[in-house]
Specification:
- The complex is a heterotrimer of chains A (358), B (283) and C (267).
- With 358 residues, chain A is an alpha+beta fold.
- Chain A has eight helices and 20 strands.
- In chain A, strands 6-7-8-3-9-10 form a six-stranded mixed sheet, sandwiched between helices.
- In chain A, a hairpin with a 4-residue loop joins strand 17 (313-320) and strand 18.
- In chain A, helix 2 (107-117) runs parallel beside helix 4.
- Chain A starts with 18 loop residues before the first strand and ends with a strand.
- Chain B has one domain: Orthogonal Bundle (MetI-like fold), CATH 1.10.3720.
- Chain B contains 13 helices and two strands.
- Chain B has helices at 4-12, 15-35, 46-50, 54-86, 93-108, 110-121, 126-133, 147-171, 175-183, 188-217, 220-225, 233-242, 249-281; strands spanning 38-39, 42-43.
- In chain B, strands 1-2 form a two-stranded antiparallel sheet.
- In chain B, helix 4 runs parallel beside helix 8, helix 10 (188-217) runs antiparallel to helix 13 (249-281) and helix 12 runs antiparallel to helix 13 (249-281).
- Chain C is an all-alpha fold and 267 residues long.
- Chain C has two domains: 3-39; 56-256, MetI-like (MetI-like fold).
- A two-stranded antiparallel sheet of chain C has the order 1-2.
- In chain C, strand 1 and strand 2 (47-48) form a beta hairpin.
- The longest helix of chain C is centred in the first third of the chain and has 34 residues, at 60-93.
- Chain C starts with 7 loop residues before the first helix and ends in an 11-residue tail after the last helix.
- The chains are: A alpha+beta (358), B mainly alpha (283), C mainly alpha (267).
- Chains in contact: A-B, A-C, B-C.
- Chain A binds chain B through residues 65-67, 87-94, 96-104, 113-114, 116-118, 147, 158, 161-162, 165, 171, and chain B through 174, 176-177, 179-187, 190, 194-195, 198-199, 280-282.
Chain lengths: 358, 283, 267
């Protein structure tokens, strides 16, 4: 995209800056919302903070925005300590969960608002606002008011408004959680496209793992005010470092395992173990449904108890003869003709697994 | 959908309420309108013409001034009080205390407030005595029982009424708006100038109109305080009703009542329009 | 709530709050305090006495008027609920097109000053006196009109908070009659709204002066003014007691009534 035309171009415009949260702790009364959080975002990177409600992800984002103050710890943007800087001087674009558009201003005036505060004159302001609205595909709605827009459109305007000021950092606080599933997926992809286009360093907070995996360069899983693991989506999914991460991200089967010599024996298959696994002896292996294959076999050791059709893939629930329930999620074509009640053989892909204490 | 017969049957369920409203609300209003045009049993504009007498115009002016002044003062102070209460915990004791106290003073007021001020700044009032001790003598003054006194006492029920009426609008202000303005670079002053005040202005104006109508219609406080003359319209109506020696006085009372209803109706209409605007923004 | 974790803005707001409320609070407390001091001293000897407070129960004219006001309050609340509640439920269930009409009528008394009602009500009141009672309790009928706007709002808020249609369809499908639906399903679910409406009506009736005075009935407020012409200490004492009573009533209501709208919680 062309360099946005506004006054005083910054040296970092369009390329993004590094953001570092250093030992952030936030105490509300007797509750520790953040407990020494450490997080660094590379210039232009999109990091998603993922976790259950109350894990501190929103608090982290609000402290970065300056809307909340850390009990201790510091915030660096582009190498400068901004911990003491007031929110309105931080130059950050933020998109809220919902209803954040000013209801008495048109869409265009909403987008222009930040520019107006910066004393940019009318003509330039308008051009920039229209350019931003074009970026989110809403240039035709510029004279409408928030109450005339759908929820998805409102969030696009909020995104355009946040980006109009060429923020050093873009902050997204569960921006999709109030939308319908379909609009959510669409807007999710759009946010990613726009973010790549402007190249702004972005922190995205969500409780929806699918959203985080689809969108982010790296996903940080939070629990009780700390980062449990931060990694690119594929790595987080295939190499969870803790039980919490494995359970929170994606579906997981829990199978009895026996570890010896750096490999685990699970349901007859030998699988390599991931770092952080039990070193030796009995444990529980956390196996992804994609790793579990079934094949129709009258001599098999399991019975299909339910099967559901999910489009290109099928999900089968099987019960082994020793009473364990497994979920398998595999391409539909590979289990054509297998229905509930059929006897099947179970095979496990030899991908690395995490084995936790039994 | 439903059969016509059952629809009529369903409507009959409203009959008791409608009948009641007709007898105790519509009939008296219509009677006032009609009587204003009838003097001694015949159609006449005489009663309405009496509204144009200099003394009546003076009373109308007084009433408008009293209502406007106390509405403006009450709205300004009340808005500030409502704002500081709105930033407190919505289920906290402070808010419950302030809203309950406001409810009592705004709606229970009347006679009670009149006596509160007799006890405070009346001839033997507590504050009058303090001031007397300080060398300022108001104990012999009758200002409390005149228009000035009414202004002071009315303000005491206008402020709490504003608190009650304005709080819901303030609750409609979403915290996201303040935070969005923050992240976009607005200082506190800029937030209020560009976002807070424009958003609240229709609600403020609406509340001010309600306060105006409230003061305009009030009778009890004035009746309890003022014992000489009738400086405001409500007192003049009572005066006319009590004066049965002069034949056409119910007509005069009706004519003044008609004037009051029309003024209040205009004000309340404007109020409801502003309310609609507010409900679109602040919900 | 977040005592130890308040942000700077919250701290600033708290400071402004207490400074403002202290200032305005003092202005409003002075007349209230003055009432108290005034009621316990006797002029001109300037000696303290509780005579004015004792008179509240000993003065027969006054205690009679207080009883009248309390009876009026009870009757008005009963009448208001009997008239308004079935109508409002019926509208939601059966005749939604009539909602605007009924709302308009209920809010109309805000536009028609009480003093104006007095001017137009004399014939109607003659009939009421002839058909029911010549005594002060006849005021119940116009009082129901006076409390309509406030009670309508309270009840409407209560009805809006429950899904009347779904509740009644569910009950009807289980075989309940309409009476059962209203009395056993809807009313119990809006108990707090009914209570608020009742409390508001009580407060309004106890404070009413205009109608009673101009129809020549002695209710509490009218007698307060009458006595005030002779002995203002007693009037001030009763006024203060009435204010305190109304405050307790509304304060209690704030705990059972519909709560102020909660702001969205965040994670």
């Amino acid at each position: 995209m062309t360099e946005p035309a506004t006054s005083a171009p910054r040296e970092d415009a369009g390329r993004g800056v590094q953001v570092r949260l250093d030992g952030l702790t936030r105490v509300f009364g007797s509750v520790k919302a953040l407990d020494g959080l450490e997080l660094t975002l590379a210039p232009g990177e999109l990091v998603a903070l993922l976790g259950p409600s109350g894990c501190g992800k929103t608090t982290a984002l609000r402290i970065l925005a300056g809307l909340d103050t850390a009990t201790s710890g510091r915030v660096f943007v582009g190498g400068t300590d901004i911990s003491g800087v007031a929110a309105h001087k931080r130059d950050m674009g933020m998109v809220f969960q919902a209803y954040s558009l000013f209801p008495h201003m048109t869409v265009r005036h909403n987008v222009e608002f930040g520019l107006k505060l910066r004393g940019i004159d009318g003509g330039k302001r308008r051009a920039r606002a229209m350019q931003m609205l074009e970026l989110v595909g809403l240039e035709s709605q510029s004279d409408r008011y928030a109450h005339q827009l759908s929820g998805g459109q409102q969030q696009r305007v909020a995104l355009a408004r946040a980006l109009a000021i060429e923020p050093s950092v873009l902050l997204l606080d569960e921006p999709l959680s109030a939308l319908d599933a379909k609009v959510r997926a669409q807007l999710r992809d759009e946010i990613r496209r726009v973010q790549l286009e402007v190249g702004t360093t972005t922190l995205f907070v969500t409780h929806d793992q699918e959203e985080a995996l689809a969108l982010a360069d790296r996903v940080g899983v939070m629990r009780a005010g700390r980062l449990e693991q931060i990694a690119p989506p594929e790595e987080l999914y295939s190499k969870p470092r803790t039980e919490f991460v494995a359970e929170f991200v994606g579906l997981t089967n829990r199978l009895p395992a026996y570890v010896s010599g750096g490999a685990a024996t699970v349901a007859g298959s030998r699988l390599p173990t991931l770092a952080g696994s039990v070193e030796e002896g009995r444990g529980t292996a956390l196996v992804r449904p994609e790793q579990i294959h079934v094949r129709a076999d009258t001599d098999g050791n399991a019975v299909v108890s339910a099967s559901s059709f999910l489009g290109a893939i099928s999900r089968l629930t099987v019960t082994t003869d020793d009473g364990a329930h497994l979920v398998s999620q595999i391409p539909r074509t590979s289990v054509q003709g297998v229905t509930a009640g059929d006897r099947v053989a179970v095979l496990i892909d030899p991908a690395p697994v995490l084995v936790i204490g039994a | 959908m439903a059969k016509p017969a059952s629809r009529i049957g369903a409507s009959l369920g409203l009959a008791p309420f409608l009948l009641y409203a007709a007898i105790f609300l519509i009939v008296p209003t219509v009677v006032v309108f009609v009587r204003a045009f009838i003097v001694d049993g015949a159609f006449s504009l005489e009663a309405l013409a009496s509204l144009k007498k200099a003394s009546m115009i003076e009373i109308t002016k007084n009433t408008l001034l009293l209502s406007l002044a106390t509405a403006v003062v009450g709205a300004l102070i009340g808005a500030v009080v409502a704002y500081v209460v709105s930033t407190a915990n919505p289920n906290g004791l402070l808010r419950r205390f302030v809203t309950s106290a406001s409810g009592v003073l705004a709606q229970f007021g009347g006679v009670t407030l009149a006596f509160a001020f007799i006890a405070t700044v009346g001839r033997e009032g507590v504050v009058s005595r303090w001031l007397d001790g300080a060398g300022i003598d108001i104990t012999n003054s009758t200002w409390l029982f005149s228009l000035k006194g009414l202004m002071l006492v009315y303000t005491y029920f206008q402020v709490p009424l504003m608190v009650i009426v304005f709080l819901p609008a303030l609750d409609g202000i979403r915290p996201q708006w303040r935070e969005a303005a923050d992240t976009l670079g607005a200082s506190t002053w800029q937030y209020w100038r560009h976002v807070g005040v424009p958003l609240l202005f229709p609600a403020f104006l609406g509340a001010l109109l309600l306060l105006f109508a409230n003061a305009f219609a009030a009778y009890a406080t004035a009746a309890a305080l003022v014992n000489q003359g009738s400086p405001i319209l409500a007192l003049k109506i009572a005066d006319a009703l009590g004066n049965e020696l002069l034949g056409n006085q119910t007509s005069v009372a009706s004519a003044i009542a008609l004037e009051m209803v029309l003024i209040v109706a205009v004000v309340m209409f404007a109020y409801s329009r502003l309310q609609q605007q507010t409900s679109r923004w602040l919900r | 709530m977040r005592a130890s974790g308040a942000t700077k803005r919250q701290q600033n707001q708290r400071l402004t709050r207490w400074v403002t409320l202290a200032g305005v609070g003092v202005l409003f407390a002075i007349p209230i305090y003055s009432m108290f001091e005034y009621s316990i001293r006797i002029t001109p000897q300037n000696k303290q006495t509780w005579d004015a407070w004792k008179a509240i129960t000993q003065n027969e004219q006054l205690s009679g008027a207080i009883r009248v006001s309390l009876e009026l309050a009870v009757l008005t609340v009963t009448g208001m609920l009997l008239l308004l509640l079935p109508t409002m439920i019926w509208i939601r269930l059966k005749v939604p097109w009539a909602k605007r009409l009924v709302e308009f009528l209920c809010l109309l008394p805000l536009t028609i000053p009480a003093i104006v009602l007095v001017v137009g009500l004399d014939n109607v009141m003659s009939w009421v006196r002839y058909l029911t009672t010549p005594g002060p309790l006849a005021l119940t009928f116009p009082y129901i009109v006076l409390v309509l706007p406030y009670c309508y709002r309270a009840l409407d808020a209560g009805l809006a908070a429950i899904d009347v249609n779904t509740l009644s369809e569910a009950a009807r499908s289980l075989g309940a009659s309409w009476t059962t639906v209203i009395l056993r399903i809807i009313v119990p679910n809006m108990r707090s709204a009914i209570l608020s409406a009742a409390f508001l009506a009580v407060a309004l009736v106890l404070g009413e002066f205009t109608l009673a005075s101009l129809f020549f009935y002695d209710n509490m407020q009218v007698v307060i003014v009458l006595i005030g012409l002779v002995n203002s200490s007693i009037s001030v004492a009763v006024s203060l007691a009435a204010l305190a009573f109304a405050f307790v009533l509304l304060f209690a209501m704030s705990f059972v009534g519909t709560r102020p709208k909660r702001r969205e919680a965040r994670s």
